[in-house]
């Protein structure tokens, strides 16, 4: 899935019946698996937590390399996976890209796993 195919926020909001409620459709299972795969990596979890901890919940890729101890190309690769999964939003400003958490993305992920 590339950036042009990112799940729209409205579709993501309607995505995925909680696992403990009904059987997931094949489409919901695919979306949910992509989301879990995106966050099932320690560096990506750290990147999300670093961005979420910022005062404005936004960070430039240039500010994310040092905390995770990786080069800019590797960090950008991880961020692209998180954008494609609908967890982060990318905003290009000049030569830098700024990332923020898609409103409700983490809550939707948690809701799918939580019993209701």
From TrEMBL:
Per UniProt, the keywords (alphabetical) are: DNA-binding, Transcription, Transcription regulation
One GO molecular function term of this record is: DNA-binding transcription factor activity
SUPFAM superfamilies, per this entry?
Answer: Winged helix' DNA-binding domain
The record ties this protein, via SMART domains, to:
HTH_ARSR (SM00418)
Specify whether DNA-binding is a keyword of the entry. Answer: yes
Keyword hit for DNA-binding: yes
Stored PROSITE patterns: HTH_ARSR_2
Q: Where is the HTH arsR-type domain?
A: 24-116
- InterPro entries in UniProt: ArsR-like_HTH (IPR011991), HTH_ArsR_DNA-bd_dom (IPR001845), HTH_MetalResp_TranReg (IPR051081), WH-like_DNA-bd_sf (IPR036388), WH_DNA-bd_sf (IPR036390)
PANTHER family assigned: ARSENICAL RESISTANCE OPERON REPRESSOR, TRANSCRIPTIONAL REGULATOR, ARSR FAMILY
The protein in question is named: Metalloregulator ArsR/SmtB family transcription factor
Name the source organism: Arthrobacter caoxuetaonis
């Amino acid at each position: 899935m590339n950036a042009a195919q990112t799940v729209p926020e409205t579709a993501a909001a309607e995505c995925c019946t909680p696992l403990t409620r009904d059987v997931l459709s094949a489409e919901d299972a695919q979306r949910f698996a992509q989301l879990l795969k995106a966050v099932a990596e320690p560096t990506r979890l750290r990147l999300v937590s670093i961005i979420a901890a910022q005062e404005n919940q936004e960070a430039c890729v240039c500010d994310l390399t040092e905390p995770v101890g990786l080069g800019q190309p590797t960090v950008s690769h991880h961020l692209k996976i998180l954008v494609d999964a609908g967890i982060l939003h990318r905003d290009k400003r000049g030569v830098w890209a700024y990332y923020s958490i898609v409103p409700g993305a983490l809550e939707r992920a948690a809701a799918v796993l939580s019993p209701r």
